[in-house]
Amino acid sequence: MGMRFRILGSGSAGNAALLQTDTSSVLVDAGFSARKLRQMLHEAGTAWEKIDAVFLTHEHGDHAAGVDGLAKHPHVQVFANAATARAVQAKLEHRPAWQIFETGARFRFRDLEVQSFSVPHDAQEPVGFTFASGRDDDLFAPRRSLAWLTDLGHIPQHVKEHLRDVDVVAVESNHCPRLLQADLKRPWSTKQRISGRHGHLSNEGVRELLESVASPRWRHIFLTHLSRDCNSLDAIESVLGTLRSRLSCGFSIVAPGGGTPFYDLA
Ligand SMILES: [Zn+2]
Ligand SMILES: [Zn+2]
Predict the structure, then answer these.
(1) 234 C-alpha vs ligand 1 centroid, how far in Å?
(2) In whole angstroms, what is the distance from residue 67 CA to residue 89 CA?
(3) CA–CA separation, 59 vs 138, rounded Å?
(4) 165 Cα: distance to centroid of ligand 2 (angstroms)
(5) Which ligand does the CA of 193 lie closest to?
(6) Which ligand approaches the C-alpha of residue 124 most closely?
(7) 264 pLDDT band (50/70/90 cuts)?
């Protein structure tokens, strides 16, 4: 199989992705109710019973709400750093099978090599992840890798380094600053939080990131966590401009609330 990846849902209402390899089936974030996730997993041809682990970026409900329902699925291991686990556990009545990692640590889970790294966001200790499987010198199982980067107000240098050597990047392209400022629903303080250094990445922020790293290894970029009110396809297209063709990799813009079909990294 190699590695395959599918975004189950993306946006402020919830975020979760399914990553499968020969011997692992894991969720990256679980920001929907367990019931909703069950339905999403069913649509992806799998089920909670076949999920081995959940990896959490941070404690916000749109990334961690599904942990609440894991009382029914105690076999699912939940990977998080201590600060995130504490914040999620404080709202739970059951104790999931926590697997605590240190931010910045690289560790193995079955056939996955997992790397976490800190990101700037208004949560306890938010992280991004890269997941890799296989080896470059293995003809039949070459190394494949994915970066999951979401909920961050700006891009520190170390984050760029983690994106250089992956095949697939899923990165948030949260808002268009102009549409955010023009929005009538959100109070000023919320707009300040979203656009701040520990808020969410704008379309311009994504362009800067993609332009400055521009790795020849990239095969596909998923733009995720789009704001329904404060972003649009037109806004993203106008910011990305010709960058898409210059990067010569695939692009998917994930509609708010939507997901993607499986993307095969084999
Ligand atoms: Zn968040
Ligand atoms: Zn979020």
Answers:
(1) 25
(2) 9
(3) 37
(4) 25
(5) 1
(6) 1
(7) very high
Burial 79-116, CB ≥16 within 10 A → b, else e = bbbebbbebbbeeeeeebebeebebeeeeebeebbbbb
- For residue range 38-47, list pLDDT tens digits in order: 999 999 999 9
The count of residues in the chain is: 266
Tokens standing for 115? Answer: 């790397």
Residue 60 Cα, ligand 2 centroid: separation in angstroms? Answer: 7
Cα–Cα nearest to 183, from 61, 63, 12: 12
Q: Which amino acid is at 58?
A: H
Q: Where are the alpha helices (DSSP H) in 71-141?
A: 82-89
Q: Give the pairing type, strands 168-172 and 220-224.
A: parallel
For ligand 1, the distance from its centroid to the CA atom of residue 30, given in whole angstroms, is 12
Rg from Cα positions in the chain: 17
Kindly report the pTM of this predicted structure.
0.97
152 Cα–ligand 1 center, Å: 8
Q: Say how many Å lie between the CA of residue 8 and the centre of ligand 1.
A: 17
Rounded distance, CA 160 to CA 212, Å? 8
Q: Which amino acid is at 154?
A: H
